[in-house]
Amino acid sequence: MVQVEDLIRVRDLHKVYRMGEVEVPALSGINLDIRRGEFVAIMGASGSGKSTFMNILGCLDRPTSGTYFLEGQEVGSLTRDAWAHIRNRKIGFVFQGFNLLPRASALENAELPMMYNGLRGGERHQRALEALSLVGLEGRLHHTPNQLSGGQQQRVAIARALVNRPSLILADEPTGNLDSKTSRDIMELLHHLNAREGLTIILVTHEADIAAYAQRQIQFRDGLVVADKRSIQPSAISG
Amino acid sequence: MLLMTLRIALRALARNKLRSFLTMLGIIIGVGAVIAMVAIGEGAKALVRAQIASLGTNVLVIVPGTVTQGGVRTGFGGVRTLSDSDAKAIMEEIPSVALASPALRQVNQIVAGNLNWSTVVQGVAPEFQQIRDWQAEEGRFINQADVDGAAKVALIGKSVADNLFGNEDPIDAVIRIRKIPFRVIGVLGAKGQTGQGTDQDDVVMIPYTTMQKRIMRITHVQSIVVSAVSAEKTQEAQQQITSLLRQRHRIQPDQDDDFFIRNLSDIAEAASNSAKVMAILLGSIASVSLLVGGIGIMNIMLVSVTERTREIGIRMAVGARSRDIMYQFLVEAVVMAASGGLIGILLGVGSSTVLNRVAQWPTLISPEIVALAFFFSAAVGVFFGFYPAQKAAHLDPIEALRYE
Ligand SMILES: Nc1ncnc2c1ncn2[C@@H]1O[C@H](COP(=O)(O)OP(=O)(O)OP(=O)(O)O)[C@@H](O)[C@H]1O
Ligand SMILES: [Mg+2]
Q1: Buried b / exposed e across A33-52, counting CB within 10 Å, b at 16+?
Q2: How many domains does chain A fold into?
Q3: A45 within ligand 1 shell (Cβ under 6 A)
Q4: Which range of residues forms the domain containing residue B169?
């Protein structure tokens, strides 16, 4: 069973937004397999359906038609609660706008996913600390988001995505709001997570140098995959 | 998990202290007012009940009624129809009657040595002691020999004893009523004040025969006090007394009674009925104020859900299930309502205590009402928090995340 090795298996995925009488097609038949441990970058023009695709992969949104297998399981037929469980355990989402709770500290933000899986306070605290030190924020535990720089906020978001030890990280333009130096730091971190921890990472970006961190670049246009190429040696990694 | 939800709720409420407080105000005022009003109502009811019990619920009082004589209606109590033989007949011929005593009263000046005191002089029979359950604390009560001989003996109430004799022993002392000397044979046990504030201990009791012959110079009696064998038999006794007196007074079937029977259990029933009406009234005020408070909570919770749509989206994105979100908002609503209830209870208990201390109003705080008020305010939180919580729980994660 070769398919079992695919972490993600998407077949003929369609998404049509209906705005009153007008139908806006966002995805027009995506077919894609992503193996465990891959680092994938998705690129494409604005409006080509990248975010729509990521949201479906992240079990935040439902496709209009088509199938999506995650770890061999067909996701489309699952209940809301099962989706919540998948978002909690199997997927870590990193957003362009960080999406942190504004009044909670870095530590509390990192603990948030564990509040929904019954972990005890001590264990929650421990894991959040580990994740925050992994992203290099052990010195900013009690800072709230508005006391942190954009890069630091995105690190908190990455720590939050890691605490439940998911196998998949979905990052929709994680460096979109950051300057190039900070972007490189974040990308080094993601590369590290992929290379050392074996996490599967799917990343959306507009920038070629960010996409170069990935081993595989997928091109979207008008809701379709138009190119899919693998680079054996990630070129942007210097050290 | 509940503890954590509670902490999140408290923090969310603390973030908007003024708003949370204003929202709770409806519940606070409602619960506070209800607690205070019920305390006052219960206090008044308990006082009335105690007074009625002190009079005896099996007691009937017969007074002369109005009577039409040659087309002229004489006033209430203005006829001289009752006699001591009526009292005797009632006691002897009616099985449901235990005791009967004539009773006459008049305000008189009492003189003892060089002191004088104005008080109510009551003429009674020995039966009066048991009917009113009023014992002599010192000395003895009036006996049959005193009545038969129209003896010049007197029992004095506690207040009279205090005012005329102070610390001296009044037994066998002489007091004068209308210049007639009476020997004090006893001091009545203290009864305290009535609901209207009259001092029941400001009284002198003498044999009714002495009262008729020497003080008032009349042959009829002003009233007859009767006790039925039990509270349940009062109704029966009243009917039997009516027919006996009609027969004795030779009243034709088409004529009205020339007497009137006052029934203390009727008064007790009226009092408990008005207490019931009061309770229903208070209950409706309570439910209206809790309803208003609840609507306030629902309103603020709906605003809060809208304001925190993005937060809900974030929580859902990291794995919160619908019921987690539901709990979060429901707990918030309940915390708000229940703390409003608690503050209201404190306010109600506080204000009724102040009323009791400062204005001397009788108040009674029943733990049941306090528990009920708390339970109800929490229930209001659940009821009115449910819809907003439901709304939050059913938000679409992606819509909620996109919400600006
Ligand atoms: N909620 C929505 N309602 C209606 N149409 C939508 C909605 N979200 C996206 N679309 C449309 O779907 C298409 C794909 O949008 P999507 O956000 O996936 O693009 P994208 O590739 O992520 O673009 P960008 O690079 O600008 O983020 C666009 O045409 C967009 O207008
Ligand atoms: Mg996008």
Answers
A1: bbeebbbbbbbbeeebbbbb
A2: 1
A3: no
A4: 99-226
